[in-house]
Amino acid sequence: MSAFEYFQENWTPVINDFLEKLLKDEVDDHKISQIMAYSVMAGGKRLRPLLFLSTLNTLGKKIDESEIRIACGIELIHTYSLIHDDLPAMDNDDYRRGKLTSHKKWGEAEAILAGDALLPMGIQWIAEGSQSAELVSIITRAVGPNGMVGGQYLDIDSTNNSSVSNDDKFINRMEWLKTGCLIEASVEMAAVYAKASDIEKVKLVDFSRVFGRAYQIYDDLVDIVETSEEAGKATHKDEEEGKNNTLTLLGIDKSRQKLKELINEAKDDLKDLNSEVLLGFLDLYKKVL
Amino acid sequence: MSAFEYFQENWTPVINDFLEKLLKDEVDDHKISQIMAYSVMAGGKRLRPLLFLSTLNTLGKKIDESEIRIACGIELIHTYSLIHDDLPAMDNDDYRRGKLTSHKKWGEAEAILAGDALLPMGIQWIAEGSQSAELVSIITRAVGPNGMVGGQYLDIDSTNNSSVSNDDKFINRMEWLKTGCLIEASVEMAAVYAKASDIEKVKLVDFSRVFGRAYQIYDDLVDIVETSEEAGKATHKDEEEGKNNTLTLLGIDKSRQKLKELINEAKDDLKDLNSEVLLGFLDLYKKVL
């Protein structure tokens, strides 16, 4: 078992237990708690919280309850983004991770509100776990109009807009904002929280940017390579709906090539760090190569 | 001119200019910036930012750019809540402050995303203006599942549910969460930020709770007393749609009586403070008495 697999097997249940317990204990209304937990506990990989914790590990920072609270705050925010992305007015998806999406299960108003509840609670956990206004600044910038929500807006705005379907720069920017910003923030928050040196921080943030860019290409490839059953959501859907991404731009072979290049770049960023665990994240991409 | 009127006339344009300038300068994408600013600049009274600043004034804290940034962060969050409340899946309102609502003007996806952009940016401004994780904790709790969003959920869940239309306790709780929590947070953040003594803080927070409770009754009375043209939105709508509030429970006369009692209670809370400006907020309610 690799260091990464060991780390993942160790901390994933801790994250899951914490999320389940706190959504029960810290949300007063039972029904809202249930609606929030339905999506949070739907079987995500906990990639972003694990990335946060792995970066702490790389920097020799001990992981305790405060650190888990921050990590889980990131997952709440990620879940909010999925719930809103799936809404009828947005991507209009019926299934996510093999289960009915929030609005299909609970209703549209309930899904909007579940997302609206998860976002501030995620930021709250980050603020209270870290006691740091700087971490709040990092996460709120990453998910605001110049980050994740900005990317989602460009996506909505450009769907079926053929004038941008071949615009490499536009697509890179959109994909970066949609997915990369939150991944970068997960690593950057860990670097700031663990008081990394300037050099460590630059390397880690560089790694997170390359990893995040690779993740989007990976995600698009999963959409094509896997069957709908394996992926737990509707696949082959992006192309049908006129969505523009690196895959529709480069095709499968060149996307795989690009992904390999990015993996090597990411490995390079981690070279001089105590990065055994972080390196393991790159193995995730093997299944589409 | 009262001290309150002077304060309001002095700071309202400062708040408005700051909001307009920063939404232009700090949002990269012109179109998203425009959609956000459309709702933020739609002519609100800036009640919550003014409450924050007036509480600072009461405590003798100087108002400078950092303080304005926090105040404006509160207004972004308030505006997000209005945009999402108006959505078709929620209250389905076409007009707000006499203008088309965000989703009517820009589309539903755009309105959801404008709200999703304003919330984290509002928290960001509060974090960066205050450099305080405690203020972030106060604001995120106030707007999360145990605060504003929780109230909105109870509202949606109880509309046309006759089993709660006579439940005084349920209605008080729902109205408190929907409107009161953010008002209380505006005052509590100022008390923490200006390092109020424990006694000052208790009095100010008490005041904010009574003021917030009164505000909801006032808002419901405006819905009946004013014509649609004066209020800038559809009035007499709550009753038609089976919405439960203090007004449908008590009727107009007893609601007015209740409001008068709350005003006296609020005045009592402010008695020993340097509260000339804060007291003036209570004059707002005169127009429905």
UniProtKB/TrEMBL annotation, chains A, B:
EC number: 2.5.1.10
Organism: Lactobacillus hamsteri DSM 5661 = JCM 6256
UniProt catalytic activity: isopentenyl diphosphate + (2E)-geranyl diphosphate = (2E,6E)-farnesyl diphosphate + diphosphate
Family of the protein in this entry: Belongs to the FPP/GGPP synthase family.
Keyword Transferase (UniProt): yes
Cofactor requirement: Mg(2+)
PROSITE patterns (alphabetical): POLYPRENYL_SYNTHASE_1, POLYPRENYL_SYNTHASE_2
GO molecular function, one term: (2E,6E)-farnesyl diphosphate synthase activity
Protein name, entry field: Farnesyl diphosphate synthase
